[in-house]
Amino acid sequence: MRRAGIQLRLAVAAAVAIVVAVAALGIAVLARLDAQLKDALDRSLRVRATEVARLQSSTPDLLLRPGTLEGRLGGSPVLVQVIDPRRRIVARSSALGSRVLPEAPVVRAALNDRRAGYGDARLGTDPVRLYAAPLGELGRGPAAGGAVIVAGTTAEIADTLDTTRRFVLLASVAAALLAATLATLLARRALQPLRRLSFGARAIERTGDASQRLPDPHARDEVGTLAETLNAMLASLERAREAEQRFVGDASHELRTPLTALRGNLAYVTKHGADPAVLEDIAADAARLGDLLDDLLALAREDAASSLRAEPVDLAELARDAEADEVVAPEAVLVLGERPALERAVGNLVRNARRHGSGAVSVTAERDDDRARLSVADEGPGLTPQEAEHAFARFWRGPDAAAPGSGLGLAIVRAIVERHGGSVTVDGSRFTIELPASHGSLKPRP
Questions:
Q1: Beta-bridge partner residues of 118
Q2: CA dihedral in degrees (254, 258, 263, 264; nearest 10)?
Q3: By C-alpha distance, which of 127, 148, 140 is closest to 60?
Q4: Of 326, 310, 298, 245, nearest to 412 (Cα)?
Q5: Cα angle 215-180-33, degrees, rounded to a multiple of 5
Q6: Which residue, 313, 325, 329, 405, is CA-closest to 367?
Q7: Residue closest to 136 by CA, chosen among 47, 57, 50
Q8: What kind and span of H or E run contains 373?
Q9: d(CA 252, CA 258)
Q10: Residues 6+ apart with CB under 8 A from 45
């Protein structure tokens, strides 16, 4: 089953978030509104009961007059009932008609415990809120020592809450639809550059042409950064492909030279028989071909290597083992790396100095804070700044190079050093490897 697209998921997520937010807000509003309406009703009931109690204390005869106990709470009449200590009705409001307020626990508490309080009850089918308060016992009149009961219907509160609840529900639905619509429009607009990038990537994938570039979204956001990164990756792939093509061409040329010589010498031997000079040439060509293949395999291994099988390696020890004419390594210089690879890098530098330099070859190993350095130098003039720029390119050989070689030795050195997180530089006849220093200890060699 195909998963929903980002656009649909964003719309659904926005709608759900809005619904949850509005529902939470609605619940909080309803709870607060319910509490406030009930508090307002309770205050009104208490105020009305207090007024009746004052009448009983000051002019009890007024309680018996028609209309004295009448009043309204909002749009509904207030219901008042006055009883004596024996629970007989002394007076009541006309809104009660033939009904009698129920004798709830708050009424018994007002008569027996002389304690005022609130309670909920039903008057017929209507829900009502009661407030019962005791009347003074010292006053005159039949209600002295009795209680006043004031009630108000809660139907209006329920209607208000129902109306608010329906409004919240409709508002949440409308907000969810609006949020989903806006999220869809915004997602469609935001994803349009991604669609163009996807179409461009498919076109590049179909043609296999790394020289093409993805369309520029002309935006300074994540999409623009993604497009720049992908185009930089394509440029890197293009350069890698060009380098690979040059490498294949150079390797083919370098391999063709000894192979051509081998074929010619073999043809001569076949026609004229074995000759010591020809056999020597064949051996030299075979050795040159072997060295070239060995260097090519070394470069391939470095290109394919993904991670180091690191162990502590002493550059000072490598310097002493390099068979140089002079070694300056007064103390251990530890790095983390692969010993065989680093040995090859140092050996290549020493062999390069012996083949193309002049005079004695010296090797120096030293440590400078968190950097470890190993330098190989001879007594010749070395490379010019222009030649130094190409020294580590594959198959590059100096214009004055007379000694045989594949032109891969320094390229192998750079590949090894860079895989170890370091760098290699050249200054005249001095080649310097710089690597991160290690604070570990050497493992005993078998």
A1: 131
A2: 110
A3: 140
A4: 298
A5: 145
A6: 329
A7: 57
A8: strand 371-377
A9: 11
A10: 73, 78, 118, 129, 130, 131, 150, 151, 152
Backbone angles phi, psi at 375, to 5 degrees: -120, 140
CA 40 to chain centre: 51
Percent helix, strand, coil in the chain, to 5, is: 55, 15, 30
From first to last of the 446 residues of the chain, give the pLDDT tens digit: 344 567 777 778 888 888 888 888 888 988 999 899 899 989 999 998 888 888 888 787 777 788 778 877 766 788 999 988 888 988 888 888 888 898 889 999 988 889 999 999 998 888 999 999 998 876 677 888 889 999 988 888 888 889 988 988 888 888 888 888 888 887 777 777 777 777 777 777 777 776 777 777 666 777 777 777 877 787 777 776 776 676 666 666 666 767 777 777 777 777 777 677 777 777 777 777 777 777 777 777 766 655 667 789 999 899 888 888 898 888 889 999 889 889 999 999 998 898 888 899 999 999 988 899 999 999 888 888 888 888 888 777 766 655 566 678 888 899 899 988 899 999 989 999 999 998 766 655 55
- Whole-number Å distance between alpha carbons of 217 and 226: 10
Amino acid making up residue 440: G
Is pTM beyond 0.70? Reply is: no
Nearest to 374 by CA among 323, 339, 334: 334
Judged by DSSP in three states, 136 sits in coil
> What value, to the nearest 5°, has the Cα angle with vertex 325 and ends 324 and 329?
70
Structure token digits, residue 160: 């208000």
Amino acid at 227: A
Which two tokens mark 21? 């937010």
Please name each of the domains of the chain with its CATH number: 6-162 (3.30.450), 222-301 (1.10.287.130), 308-436 (3.30.565.10)
Cα gap 405→288, rounded to integer Å: 8
Partners of 373 in the β-ladder: 366, 434
Please tell me the distance from the alpha carbon of residue 7 to that of residue 15, in angstroms, as a whole number: 12
Structure tokens at 276: 């010591």
